[in-house]
């Protein structure tokens, strides 16, 4: 993956990164050259064997092999092959001794961010260490937020210009998304503060990639808060779809890592909402296939604490660091029940959980000294990664590569001509028409309904406008 990121870095990258590029290139070239397309008798290998061999190779080499012949170009571009490559290549990557990450950091203040590419040597004993890093100064667009990877794809968002895009850095593709749908509210001023969270996932039912945005507005003078709208983007249809409003205003936090598990994407509510005295502990989950939402209460963790969501034991996890006792806790959520997986400490430093990695390994940040830390459940200790480039870390996201294109041909999408010309108001009416009764999202929000429609589902979670 580190090759794919070279185009986004400064031309004169540091010497460590250059050596790393060369070493990796040599290893993968030797691996690639060991693949013989013809056997000793000169007979061509069976086509299925060639497909199997190619499906295990890095994206960098497959892009080059597209030039071998038209048949290979068609094969590597085929959606079935892209899916096969996703399964095989990611399975083979488990034994890699190097791992790449995107690090989102505060640049000048809390509202300005920049990305770094960070390379971690995972075979270093007794703890991994950062062997190279570089600022991503040549990104295809300015980025203040990033989410992913989902099959090698990332959602990019620039807050100040409200530019949104899907990005596959491995094949150097960027798709700028259409403007986000907005809903007018007479009680709001266009200058009112807006807040949003976002998620990226794959709909396994329709084989579609989706972006979900939960957006809300509030007036800082009157303290009026509009119900948060939920808008979903479909890559297949290349459009946003308004789903409804949440019942109340959830002060959701932007995730510091990619929290997608079993088709559900999760966000956590901040400790303080409204008057910043009322405590609230809730997690909101969104199902990418069914558009269903769920609300989960947090466990009885030790407070006050620095906390974030993550993945642990292939389950949704709460990572918390107790500020008074300096204890680190990990809770997992399975079959509707929270269970504490570990509690370790006390530690001398205060560590902020910021992300997860494979085999239950976790990333943390020193809250005082801004060191990047690494937690290994086997040693049950937090190690300093000796990374000197850290400012205030706002997230860590693994680098994944794939052949998945974000520039799909949408001509075959299942949308009628009448749907394409409806505009914002038309899209809203589609979601709220009487015939459109199966939303799959009654658990957390609802469409606009008339007074005659009195059956609301779960009233304690959702509102209905009459």
UniProtKB/TrEMBL annotation:
The species this protein was found in: Saponaria officinalis
Source organism superkingdom: Eukaryota
Pfam families reported for this sequence: F-box, FBA_1
This protein's name: F-box domain-containing protein
SMART domains named in the record: FBOX
Domain F-box: 45-85
NCBIfam families according to UniProt: F_box_assoc_1 (TIGR01640)
């Amino acid at each position: 993956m580190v090759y794919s990121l070279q185009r986004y870095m400064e031309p004169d990258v540091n010497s460590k990164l250059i050596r790393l590029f060369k070493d990796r290139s040599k290893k993968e070239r030797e691996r690639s050259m060991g693949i013989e397309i013809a056997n000793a008798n000169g007979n061509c290998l069976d086509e299925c064997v060639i497909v199997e061999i190619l499906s295990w190779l890095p994206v960098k080499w497959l892009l080059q092999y597209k030039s071998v012949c038209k048949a290979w170009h068609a094969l590597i571009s085929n959606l079935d092959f892209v899916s096969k490559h996703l399964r095989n290549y990611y399975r083979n990557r488990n034994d890699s001794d190097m791992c790449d990450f995107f690090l989102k950091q505060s640049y000048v203040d809390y509202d300005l961010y920049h990305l770094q590419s960070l390379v971690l040597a995972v075979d270093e004993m007794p703890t991994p260490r950062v062997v190279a890093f570089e600022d991503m100064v040549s990104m295809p667009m300015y980025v203040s937020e990033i989410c992913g990877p989902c099959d090698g794809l990332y959602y990019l968002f620039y807050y100040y210009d409200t530019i949104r895009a899907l990005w596959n850095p491995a094949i150097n593709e960027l798709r700028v998304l259409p403007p986000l749908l907005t809903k007018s509210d007479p009680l709001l001023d266009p200058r009112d503060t807006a807040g949003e969270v976002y998620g990226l996932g794959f709909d396994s039912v329709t084989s579609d990639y989706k972006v979900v945005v939960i957006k809300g507005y509030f007036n800082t003078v009157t303290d009026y808060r509009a119900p948060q709208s939920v808008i979903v983007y479909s890559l297949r249809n290349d459009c946003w779809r308004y789903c409804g409003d949440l019942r109340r205003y959830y002060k959701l936090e932007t995730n510091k890592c990619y929290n997608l598990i079993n088709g559900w994407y999760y966000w956590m509510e901040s400790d303080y909402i409204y008057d910043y005295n009322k405590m609230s502990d809730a997690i909101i989950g969104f199902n990418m296939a069914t558009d269903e939402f769920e609300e989960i209460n947090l466990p009885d963790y030790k407070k006050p604490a620095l906390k974030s969501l993550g993945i642990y034991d292939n389950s949704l996890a709460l990572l918390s660091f107790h500020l008074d006792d300096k204890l680190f806790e990990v809770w997992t959520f399975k079959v509707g029940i929270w269970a504490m997986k570990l509690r370790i400490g006390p530690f001398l430093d205060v560590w902020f959980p910021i992300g997860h990695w494979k085999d239950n390994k976790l990333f943390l940040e020193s809250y005082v000294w801004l060191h990047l830390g690494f937690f290994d459940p086997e040693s049950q200790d937090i190690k300093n990664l000796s990374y000197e480039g850290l400012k205030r870390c706002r997230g860590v996201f693994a680098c994944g590569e794939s052949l998945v294109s974000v520039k799909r041909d949408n001509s075959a999408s299942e949308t009628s001509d009448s749907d394409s010309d409806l505009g914002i108001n038309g899209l809203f009416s589609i979601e709220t028409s009487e015939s459109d009764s199966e939303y799959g999202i009654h658990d957390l929000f609802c469409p606009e309904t008339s007074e005659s429609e009195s059956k609301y589902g779960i009233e304690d979670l959702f509102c209905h406008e009459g």
